[in-house]
């Protein structure tokens, strides 16, 4: 089991960095949403799609979805 875990990629430095980045973004987003009581409607969502950071995150999510779908 330990060998399988070591070879799975879950302990790879890139995986650990990615999880750390996601955790930091989660905490920041949560804190901001709590302070500002962030709410967004359909038009706000469409407007957010113009943000390069949102586009990058969505691109990542789509790429992850494709690759994860192949794995399962």
In a nutshell, what does this entry contain?
This protein is mainly alpha-helical and 72 residues long. 79% of the residues lie in helices and 0% in strands. The protein contains four helices and no strands.
Describe it.
With 72 residues, the protein is mainly alpha-helical. Helix content is 79%, strand content 0%. The two termini are 20 Å apart.
Task: Break the fold down into its secondary structure elements and pairings.
Elements: H1 2-7, H2 13-36, H3 42-48, H4 52-71
Average pLDDT reading: 93
Low-confidence stretches: none
Helix count, per DSSP? 4
| Spatial extent as radius of gyration | 16 Å
Please report which band the strand proportion falls in: under 5%, 5-15%, 15-25%, 25-35%, 35-45% or over 45%.
under 5%
Tell me, what's the shape? extended
